[in-house]
Hints:
The structure holds 4 protein chains of 4 kinds. Chain A has helices at residues 2-18, 20-39, 45-76, 80-86, 92-121, 129-154, 163-187, 194-218. By secondary structure, chain A is mainly α. The radius of gyration of chain A is 18 Å and the shape is globular. Chain C contains 6 helices and no strands.
Amino acid sequence: MNIALAILWKDLVTEWRARERVIAMLLFSILTAVIFYFALPDQRPETLRTLTPGLLWTAYLFAAILGLNRSFALELENEALSGLALAPGGRGWIFLGKAAANFILLSLVQALTALAFALFYGVDFSSSALNLAAVIMLATLGICSVGTLLAAMAVRTRLREVLLPILLLPALVPVLSGAVHGTLSVMAGEGIPFSSVQLLIVIDGIYLVISFLGFEYILDE
Amino acid sequence: MTSPLLRLKDIEKAYGPITALRNISLDLDHGETISLLGPNGAGKSTLLRIVAGLAAPTRGTLEIQGTAHDRRAIGYLGHATLLYPELTARENLIFAARLHGVPKPARRADQLLEEEDLSPVAQRRAGGFSRGMAQRLAIARARVHKPSLLLLDEPFTGLDVPAISRLSQRLIELRNAGQSWLLVTHEVERAAMLADTALIVLRGQVAERLTGGELTPQNLSEIYAKALDLQS
Amino acid sequence: MTPMTKPFSQTKDDSAHTTNGGLSPLEQQATRWRQPFGWLLVVITLVYAWAVFQAPLDHTQGVIQKILYVHPPLAYGAYLGFVITAIGGLLYLWRGREDCDRLAISGAEVGVLFCTLMLVTGPIWARGTWGRWWSWDPRLTVTLLLWFVYLAYLLLRSFSGPGPRTARFAAIYGVIGLVLIPLNYYVIEIFDNRSMHPDNLERGSLGDGMGWPFLLGNLCLGFAFIYLVLLRWEVEARRVFQQRQEALEEPDT
Amino acid sequence: MGYAIAAYFVTAAALVAYGAALARENARHRSTVVQKAHRSSNTG
């Protein structure tokens, strides 16, 4: 457990000092919000409101991919990743540390992006902010668990960052579906539908187990 | 008899079609130091990565203290420093200590900074270190969990003269303190002066073995030159 | 935390020491078993072809409805492919068996072929029935999602670099791919109740006299899938064997 | 009518072509193994 906390601390301190990752993710997702605005057929309020969940989660997915790639690109500097591979003990804890750090940084970006969407799209989240946060947390847990596992693999292949979205997006279709459904009904003020919560919890559980056990095998040569 | 610190038997390593190592066998006892001398591409680094547990041999067995591989017994210093540029020297060591489950990581970090006399730069970020200082910090990191066997892969490359002599001095001190290490280098001088035994590695195989009295820089460079002529 | 981590002795399986032509004992057995299976496949194909010809015409859709006997049966290959890949991958991780890793490759490659054929025959059927190529028919959509997982798997395999790392990465992604089949099916069939799939290719139940051709179609294409996987498995074993032979012969400089 | 034929044709063609390609490669591998065995035996 200590290893996971050490890695979480290391990632957050590194990010706090460099701040490059959070800023890049934030600018990217807010920029996506703006671009979507121009991409929409018309700017009528109800069009914006109905499309917001889908657009919001699309921006989140791509910001997540940016952050996950960066999270392991940092480990490649000075081959620090081999330093992690050399550590004794189960590597699942290393996975937990990295996933937790990615989760915290992504949640920060998601919160600020939600504000940007609220501002640009005139959508009022405040009434159901708590429920929305819950849905976002649940989905982000799934994104960060399988995302951390796949990023650790993708960044060490010859395709580097290009491979991550190709590996990750098919795996996130169920998560996206659950997240968008949850967001839709939360924004409609009906609270979080049980079906979305159940789906997301099942996926999170599966991906956390696969990633925790699988990480053992991907740090080796 | 107690099992050796490190035992390699018929180690083979093939990357797809390329065979990097062909049946290498090697024993290293507690406190013994060995240097592996050979041209680039002879497979020395591959062998070291296998001993470190970073790579698995295609065939052959590897035992550390009589049992299968145990990463707690190994300290590895490769070409790369494994350090995080944003973290300070002290933070890097504390992180490495916690990673290896070392009790009281802060105290261990300070002790290592003392030993490698890096205390004055403890609070500076590792990213700003010169190659020589980064190397000293990397050695401290490799020794954080008091490994029984220290692996050094071409530690002298890229160092200026004072740094080379300091590092050589350091390795001799460690040896005298009973720390066994396995040094990979392509410099004859280092290979002969620092270790108890020198092995010449050519094209993935141990070609020659010199130890004790016969291991002098003069003797080693002659044999090494002859072995290189045979090979080409 | 366990002090001792996974031991790093060499791959301890006997599958690496192969005898004739690089086939492990399991692969030799599969190859021997494949020959008679091939003849059975030829017979079934003939009977299947005859059955399709004489199958009664569907009064509403006409002859195009006969695609029912080829499109859905392809699904076995598409889904079974990834099950084989995942199992092969897990056996490789757990037992270090290289021959199972080769089985995983074969399952994926033949599986993606069947998946692609589904994504070709499905739109052909939709085009003939509704005049447009793509309909978000539930089975077709799940197949499309699985198709992306297959391609990601094959891409990961080809770019993972030398040595056992490729097999390990592929094994892990194979497990994720396997989990995705039921997940995607659940999401599309039950969860996504948006008016997403108005038209369903296989909605009609089988009329009388259509049961036989459908059964034969499933048998024929199912057997074809198994035959091709076994064949591809042998080819993969021989490819790897030849690669290693070439490496041993010419002296590496 | 054409659609049904197209569907069956594509499926049959793809499967047969793939199977044939594999069989050919298999034969090629087998022949090289036999050749080597032959070569090494008489020069051995």
